[in-house]
TrEMBL record, chains A, B:
InterPro entries: Pyridox_Oxase-rel, Split_barrel_FMN-bd. This is Flavin-nucleotide-binding protein. It comes from Capronia epimyces CBS 606.96.
Amino acid sequence: MAPNFEYPKKPQNTVKRYNSRATYDLGAVHSVINTTSVLHVSFAPSPDEPFPAILPMIGVMGSFEYPSSGIDEPLDCYLHGYVSSRLMRLAREAPNGLPVCIAATKVDGFVLSLTPNSHSYNYRSAVLQGYARPVETDEEKVYAMQLITDKVVAGRWENTRVPPDNVEMTSTTILRVKIETGSGKVRQGGPHDEPKDENRAEITDKVWTGVVPVYETLHAPIPSATNKVKQIPAYLDQYVSEVNKSNRETALNAVNEP
Amino acid sequence: MAPNFEYPKKPQNTVKRYNSRATYDLGAVHSVINTTSVLHVSFAPSPDEPFPAILPMIGVMGSFEYPSSGIDEPLDCYLHGYVSSRLMRLAREAPNGLPVCIAATKVDGFVLSLTPNSHSYNYRSAVLQGYARPVETDEEKVYAMQLITDKVVAGRWENTRVPPDNVEMTSTTILRVKIETGSGKVRQGGPHDEPKDENRAEITDKVWTGVVPVYETLHAPIPSATNKVKQIPAYLDQYVSEVNKSNRETALNAVNEP
């Protein structure tokens, strides 16, 4: 088996707190990005402004140069969303692209222990840092548009009116982020209490401990007022079922220690 | 009725794109923060580092000075999480506190239209900007710890071993963010297609359009190996039911235009 690719540990991405939960594995980090509906993208708006900005965006990992790359291989992050003209200008003007930080977090459960301080979440999180630039060529733009559309619902692209026309191509902005560093964190398992509480019956007889698994549910698709297709298409029906099954299993599996 | 409080529109928080979806209403913005399990908190780590940092944290709105304040009144944001020593040092050393940006986004549905470019999410998002400082007094720390614990499961604090002992108080770090600006965005409704596609039967006969509602589900609580409380307590059982009902209704209500 080939060795797993890992992100290099640099000062800014090395996890210090609870570092046994850290992962630098490309596959693990990229999977969290690809299964999270909304990414949070941070950047510095200007030298005069004290606050960083955060935009919620849709994003997906991909490689236009090597489209057959697996999820555990080096990939770029393509971002789409309500890209402000400010963000676009910054990404276009910066000589090496705009430095951004991209974060995604999935909560898999509430971990309830004897005392509030030991409460926790089961979760998977990913953070990427890299340089964002607007995608320039139509070929790469269409490649990224398909990835992004199929992230929302697998197989959706080929089941819509494509390709985009000229107006749509011009009005769509996609950012490509060249990743410099990345890391992830994963917490699984039940509550961890301390002997000072676990050995006192007046506490353990009173306080329920355990996990409330949490997962995202997709409801059955609801047709629009103008929809003309009578049956819900198989690819859509199947996607809803598969995501629901996978999300529920992931949250339930996280209840037990790995 | 008293007028709604709104966040002042400054250059950095004024929504320009799709501004009809914007809200500056304190109640609307704070509600998104308070119902989102994980907030993403961005800050500038140091002048030498090009990339902003993002940490996933638990956060809740509150006012230690005026604890009876409503959700639609001026509030601080209390943050708890794996606060890095770097973040703590920056928050302690900055003369006015550390400038941070806090973001929360709830996805309520996938909006599927005739062509990829018109695809969208139903969602509610909130962004706050303010100055973070560590909470110094034990009284305010306990106030914030209770808010944060009860955010995970309503009523959890009083049903655990409290108050925290001295070791727990010392080892817990809470940040209080004084909010300078805030804004939110809300998208509801079905797909919006253009006449160029809607009037072509070869497209509308083939492409299903509508909404896949999305919501977070809490599974029935699963006891830990060491749990001694035989029945799931009523406050917990009720919380799970209420959150599930509310989340589902919110996503289904979002399918229709407001």
